[in-house]
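Practice set, problem 2.
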Amino acid sequence: MNLLITGANRGLGYEIAAEALERGHAVIAGVRSPGQENDKLSALAAKYGERLTVAELDVTDEAGIAALAARMQQEGRTLGAIVNNAAILVARNTQIESLDMDDVVNTFEINLYGPMRVVKHFLPLLTEKDAAIINISSEAGSITNAYPGDYPYAISKTALNMFSQQLLSYVKGRGIQVLSIHPGWMRTDMGGATAPNDPGNSARGIVDQIERKIVPESRFNFVDFSGKEMPI
């Protein structure tokens, strides 16, 4: 299987790439700046060779996304999974009275419009058997458990869950699985050093779902990394 992973140079994106490669898959690791601060990806490339392709992919740059997709299509490359992982978390614990709306706009550009751009241009390549679109979401996107603060991040993830549901309805006749996955609170740059979950553990569960070793039973296809249903 060929996996396209955005934001693959660190954190969860890197761990999903490493896990997929370890299992014998091929990975297109999308990063904003290939060659810059990508030592971990370089180590993976040395270990797995041509099964890892590091590609310039900025989820805010639609022209660049379209060009990469067109180039891959010309090369006859196909995809078995799209993993929309790239995201930002800003304005932590900021209440509405103090919220900078530019933070909201920038968050939506990456967390919501980014996945939409990627799927728009790469969906035609998603032709492998048992293909999947994985949108990395968050428990913060649950309307049921809404809390004040983190407005840009939480609302963008709620909207991402809706996008997943729309996609699922659109591609269900093609045998493509679409999931919004809450990866857990992880020890990453975003999650912080005190987070209880190791990102490698989350990555294993996510790849299990990509491989359909775990097939979630969820009304809204919003699940955690183990496949357990999340409250929408």
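Problem 2, part (b): a different protein.
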Amino acid sequence: MTTAGTPVAAIRRHYDVGNDFYALWLDPTLSYSCAWGRGTLEEAQERKLARHLAAAGARTRLLDVGCGWGGILARAGVPAVGLTLSDAQAAHVRALCLDDVEVRVEDWRDHRPTRPYDGIVSIGAFEHFAAPGTDKVAIYRDFFTRCRDWLDGSRGALSLQTIGYADMDPAEASRFMQQEIFPDAELPTLPEITTAADGVLEITALSNGRLDYAWTCAQWARRLKARREPARELVGPEVVARYERYLTLSSFGFRMGKLALYRITLRPYGSRWGR
């Protein structure tokens, strides 16, 4: 597995805390990313999954880069491959025994598909691709180039969701978040994303759902606090306190416009989507 420029250990430190811990405060789909709109958390997460699947438009074969606990894979409706760096997440997806679904503990840089996909989804993984001090644009361009080649001129698209810096200089980012929550990860800015995509993939839709993420994080924080005692029994009081603080700070950052939540649809230039 490739490790250069990829915070594999940091990702596992965060996501392998324990499936039972996350199940206490996430919705039943175990979606650990921004929901879409309002209603109950369950309704908003189902809406998010459906909209990304619709944007990707896979008709025969789907790739999910950063598949988490399998929410997209379980609803793909076509043969699908999921990539994760978390052993715990991969074990959970395999235990679901989903038909025509393969999950791999594999970095996207190491992925070698046996045939093209006609839809790609990546939700909440892009922000982990680059470490501080790396050439973020080059890394993102590499990812976009691979996605273009994997799509192979199909009608499908890459449906991307990522946190990004908004009204905040990266130097102002919380040391607590950078050291205790997502070490060795650096968020993108919108200009870095668009520069990396230029000439590789065409951006056909772009929106900022930061207020949806402020609401989502507040929902998670409320649910975790309500299950604080069983959570402490699973992972200890220090971990629970760290997550409560992280979720509260995140909600504040999105609400104040310091952080953005970009939802982007990208397609290969000259693809048949508009015909």
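Answer key, part (b): Residues 8-267 form a domain with the Rossmann fold fold (CATH 3.40.50.150). DSSP finds eleven helices and seven strands in the chain.
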